[in-house]
Amino acid sequence: MHARSLGPLVRTRAFGMTPVRNQIKLCHYQPCIGLDSEPCASLCSSLQSSGGGVLPNHPPQNLTVATTGASGAIFLRHFLLAVSEEERIPTVNFIASDSALRVMAEELEIKGRSNLVSQILGGSGKKSAAAAQRKIQLQSNDDIGANVASGSYPADAMVVLPCSVGTLARIANGVASHLIERAADVTLKEKRPLVLCVRETPLNKIHIRNLYRAADAGATIFPLIPAFYFRPASLDEMAREFAYRVLAHLGLPQPAAFRWKG
Asked: For residue 83, is it within any domain?
């Protein structure tokens, strides 16, 4: 359904029009322009089907974050730190694969799954570890029946950081035997934003084909490539800026992010 088929009573800024009746209602995914007091979830669904994601300037409030067995755990740490302090995101579901635990043991000195979120954050956040754990709900990658495995659960977006090429291959080809791939599959079928922060080099033809397949299905390929033009003084500063870029891509710009002024 296109916006013009809704008639003159309902218009949307997503298509560059001026709303006629501008009573704003809040559905599961983003504020919409509805008619009188009726909910407008069907309108949201139609707009998502045509655009494939959250409407501009209406960021996600329920975020799924997954991490897999690729190097770059410091980027995950700073992304979770930023998310834990982001008041516009009240709900976060976090999934870590077994391979991710192996990588984090090497790169972040994580020891097992006990208090995993606190271990990843490393006491670096402004909020207390208890507050962060209440906000960031850990899900088992083996639990294929978890909330994020269903399209009826109102998750708004998903980020896989880092995303291994093995996880990329399963997502791109619809192999959903674990929760990470199933949640990504649901995100794609529901036309919600899926950001894959792929970490691998060099890329062979299989990797490149899978990158294309995932992008063609609706995912955003957001390679784990940090910026250097702002002259980061440390790995932490570099990883933090990358986290800010991912959040900005989801409609959550961060005031502390570097802005290039030319």
From this structure: yes
pTM: 0.79
Residue with tokens 């896989």: 160
**What was the pLDDT predicted at 53?**
53
pLDDT tens string 54-71: 444 468 999 999 999 999
Weakest-pLDDT range from 24-33, 103-112, 193-202, 222-231? 24-33
Alpha-carbon distance of 199 to 81, in angstroms, equals 20
Query: Which alpha helices (DSSP H) does the chain contain, by range?
Result: 41-51, 73-84, 98-107, 116-121, 129-135, 165-172, 179-189, 205-217, 235-249
C-alpha closest to that of 28 among 155, 218, 123:
155
Specify the CATH number for the domain of residue 123.
3.40.50.1950
Do 45 and 82 reside in the same domain of the chain? Answer: no
257 domain residue, yes or no: no
Same structural domain, 41 and 158: no
Domain shared by 36 and 156, yes or no: no
